[in-house]
């Protein structure tokens, strides 16, 4: 910036004379004309005004106007105060349990950052870059026993929990409850138990055993393995043959699982995810969940979370039966489902997703959780040939009702769940193997979901009360899912997603969708998009939204 | 101290300057206290605006609600915290250049009315009328109405924290705000400038609270997005290219709008030669620094993503960092906007007034109340137009149409400044900037206009249409005024007389005593 040629603080003393002749020739035509006008002022002269305007009736008239002015002012003020006082108060915001209004980040400790220390170092990434305030930790293998999960690094785990709590984050632990490692002491005990005089409380029936030779019929997820000590077969998971199925008929096994849960709560975790509940042996899965719930979660003071996952499809888990108090803010188990990713990239994907969401919402008021990739499953990035599917799925899973559970790696569009971190990187920086498009989409949506920022509070939480509006929009196109979310008087959002294999054009102008002055809106603006083709704030014609395959848009007025 | 400081400059329509010594210090003080000149003076608006009032008018008008509500326009486009801060600083510096150009114009052409007066003097009647037309018809009334609505929204915020305040109550309160401030402005210029000073101080205090809270956070080491090396990290995956930085600057310039407000009341300033540039040179750095520090505080309190997602950034910061004192923020926004309405009324009434004095508005708007020395009819009309805007639902569309229009006229006025440098090189200019500065600022104006037309061509064309609709009005009511039939003259004269009697007002004296 240059400086004035002359100092600002000019010498003013000589201004007098010179400004008097301030360029006489500057007088322009318009000015000359005006001089004319000024002479022709048509109103009253000062003397006339003094005389007429001071007549009593004019004085009175001015007083009357003055009083009317104040009366109107006071009336407007009183009216405004009256309306404010008598207007219906804002409906109280629901106060959900912490786990009903959160974004969960699920990670295997070895894949995320090798060990608990590494996980602790990158908590800021989860909290500040992803706006996820709850980490679901899983052990390196498919482990449930604290010693095995922590790999005897109890101090590291304790430190992780403490640091996370200091950052106002929650830590949950993932434990499989269907099987137990054959390396566990209990397996040897069971294999060598004297079963002739077996009584309850002994290890004999701890696992699912079958006499050798009768192994023909078995479930598709399991197989039989011969044990030379016992000279019988035990049932193992096909995915991990070193894990034997627990037999819930055995009181000892039941006791063991309960002790396992307790030992985790003793380690101050804020919640537990039990899985794979669909494959538990000799017990009705719902009963298992219910029993654990009643044993550990009904205490008045506890506010820990119970997440329940069962490999898809999970017809066994019945939300109605688990609906412990038929409200949506009371304590309740959280059932995870991965129906979005299982329907993606198929014809009529939109219809199938809609059916799944409607099915849930029609059967229970309870909040559910959504997951794209279960632990051990392959990440969305590698599951679909269309690479834009990942960002689109992430965005949709965060915007549908329920708690999003992000599997580590999915949020950055990684193809391997093993994250790599730049050495000496900042605590909240993203892993090196990130796709920025995916990460930014996730971040843009999670910040709105978690922080409850006014603009998109309608995205935050699904109250199912009159003040929440969630409605599907009939696009007459089975490939596209479109729904409208609004909470009380908060601005509404419209979510449109095409997860089918081909590009689609839909009309989402609807009286149950975005409104513009009581008419269905014809235009909207992009709030968050999963695709670089739509920038934030871009206008969209709602009567013909062109969606390439693998695109999700959140639109607002 | 030069002799002149004890003098009272009196000026007639930019034609002559006469110095009237204020005899004694006491007398001068008395005049400052009451805002009324000795009866020996000619009858006109009085010189009551001090340099502090001037700073209050500029700072109070620039800092509206934007910095509290959504300082995100810049960040949205720059893509990183560091680049956003650079753009804020650049916009501040460029706006200061614009303000300095206006300081030169304002001290060369010593007339109230800002760009209107300069365009009138330099380019003549028609262009000036079009400037007046768009300003008084749409820009200022909508501006006042919108600030008043923001005031009403925030004053009711404590009662409706989690939902929207009732619309009717908000509009009524906005009207209450406009009406009471109109009364204050009608009552006394001194009162109006005092209100302006108090509320400007209040908003600065609120911003200082925000800044301190933010810097405490930085010293605690919680502000990761500001760390050197991180601050240029792209937010939302956008690395800013030139066109995005341009869009960001475009948003930034709107945040600084109001740097020209003091030029609207030059005739009411005490010693404008000194105080106009002084007030500008004090205000612009204050605003620029406050804006920068407030943005740093926001970045300290929240991630750039959160800043982008929030619709009430200061409230979010307050809820996070101020604890039980969080209520301070919405109240401060309300106070800030209340002061903003006051400042806008103060200056917009002067455009009506000056316009009327030049025959571009009905002559009754150039009347001054005999007791209060305030332009009562002009104030009532600008207030009434604002109230009218409050009841129309298309107000926001209107402001979209004409939002860019101010920049046309800043550009024209400053181009005029350059033109006069060549036409009248020997003109007495108390301040004379390097010629490159006004030329540079003209380029800035052109740049903003090009961006406006590029980003929303339909709105801009509509706005241009609204401006050009003033041409037939000009010819009908201004150019052919002399050919008006007698009955029309009679009606106009009767209206003027009626308003004179109701408002107890006279036009200012046309001749020196």
Automatic annotation (TrEMBL), chain A:
Ranges in coiled-coil conformation: none
Entry-linked SUPFAM superfamilies: (Trans)glycosidases
Membrane spanning stretches: 63-85
Keyword vocabulary terms for this entry: Membrane, Transmembrane, Transmembrane helix
Domain Glycosyl hydrolase family 13 catalytic: 106-446
Stretches for region Disordered: 1-38
Basic and acidic residues bias spans: 26-38
Pfam families referenced in this protein's UniProt entry, alphabetically: Alpha-amylase (PF00128), SLC3A2_N (PF16028)
PANTHER family: 4F2 CELL-SURFACE ANTIGEN HEAVY CHAIN
Protein name: Glycosyl hydrolase family 13 catalytic domain-containing protein
Species whose genome carries this gene: Clavelina lepadiformis
Organism taxonomic ancestry: Eukaryota, Metazoa, Chordata, Tunicata, Ascidiacea
UniProtKB/TrEMBL annotation, chain B:
Keywords on record: Membrane, Transmembrane, Transmembrane helix
Any single Pfam family the record assigns to this protein: AA_permease_2
InterPro entries named in the record: AA/rel_permease1, AminoAcid_Transporter
Transmembrane residue ranges: 49-69, 81-105, 117-140, 168-186, 198-219, 239-259, 280-301, 321-353, 373-392, 398-422, 434-455, 461-480
Membrane topology: Multi-pass membrane protein
Record bears the keyword Disulfide bond: no
Entry keyword Hydrolase: no
Domain of life, per lineage: Eukaryota
Cellular location(s): Membrane
PANTHER family the UniProt entry points to: AMINO ACID TRANSPORTER, AMINO ACID TRANSPORTER PROTEIN JHI-21
Protein name: Large neutral amino acids transporter small subunit 1
